[in-house]
Amino acid sequence: MSSPRPPLFLLIFDFDETLVDENSDDSVQRGRALPERLRQSPRGVSYNEHMRRVLAWLGEQGVSPAELRALYEKLPLSPGMAELFQFLSKHRELLELVLISDANTFGVEAKLRAAGLRSLFRKIFSNPASLDRRGFLTLGPYHRHKCQECPENMCKRKILSEYLAERAREDVEFQRVLYVGDGANDFCPAGILRAADVAFPRKGYPMHRLIQEKQEKQPGAFQAAVVPWESALEVARYLQELLRGC
After folding, report:
1. Above 70 in pLDDT, residue 42?
2. Buried/exposed 173-186: b ≥16 CB within 10 Å, e otherwise
3. Percent helix, strand and coil across the chain, each rounded to 5?
4. Contact, 81 vs 19, CB < 8 A?
5. 203-244: per-residue pLDDT in tens?
6. Helix H or strand E segment including 97
7. Which of 79, 113, 156, 226 is the most buried (most CB within 10 A)?
8. Is 132 assigned a ligand-binding role in the annotation?
């Protein structure tokens, strides 16, 4: 028997304010009287380390992992995202889905499983989160890197580059890479997309603004096609045309 045909397209999703319509870090803090030292990330401390301290404080206040999981599970999907994933579920053989997020594995996995989406993703890349001896949720950095544009705990360009190289060694070459995101840290990996690839920045968010600035200052430097979206239905419509005839 012949082996199944490898997927033609790699579809990358961000999580916060892309797949879900909120910043999950903000959501777990909402309505809580954080002490002054935790109300904003102090100078000299990375945001990743700041959130590690916030999660530790929440544990000390008696907020259980079950309560945190419930908060993550209730995060609303972005407009049109449920319909987009209904479409994607019908085309699994053509699309390989990966999620790259600067949130944390605990929250991302909780939301994806609650929404019935986890099985659609081949791989999740996010900051490691686990329970310590006290039963508190602890957060770590994803990796080290040398990128000057990204937070010290995660460079999504490095993750995407390494993933593409890994899949190439497994004899999987994608016709196109498709990237759905919103933030400045999504602009960095979008910079390695080729002319055949597509960037889907959320309209009016930092990724979109940075792409526009790049196109204005250096015409042609940003190679990928750019398809801004307000509703993920716009992404679904584009993909529907792309997959027509495949």
Report:
1. no
2. ebebbbbbbbbebb
3. 40, 15, 40
4. yes
5. 999 999 999 999 999 998 899 999 999 999 999 999 999 998
6. strand 95-100
7. 156
8. no
Q: Catalytic amino acids?
A: 14, 16
| Residue 182 annotated as binding site | yes
Angle at 206 between CA 166 and CA 127, to 5 degrees: 45
Q: What is the pLDDT of residues 20-34, one digit of tens each?
A: 999 999 999 888 888
Q: Is 233 exposed, middle or buried (0-12, 13-18, 19+ CB in 10 A)?
A: middle
Q: State the SS3 of 133-163.
A: CCCCEEECCCCCCCCCCCCCCCCHHHHHHHH
Distance (Å) of CA 9 to CA 29, 73, 197:
37, 28, 9
- HSE, side-chain direction, 13 A CA sphere, residue 154: 23
Q: Quick one: CATH architecture of 9-21+77-128+142-245?
A: 3-Layer(aba) Sandwich (3.40)
φ, ψ dihedrals at 243, nearest 5°: -85, -10
Strands 225-226 and 121-125: unpaired
Contacts of 107 (CB under 8 A, 6+ apart): 24, 28, 68, 72, 129
Helical pair 65-73 and 105-114, crossing angle rounded to 10 deg: 50
Domain borders along the chain are: 9-21+77-128+142-245
197 known ligand binder: no
Burial of 1 (0-12, 13-18, 19+ CB in 10 A): exposed
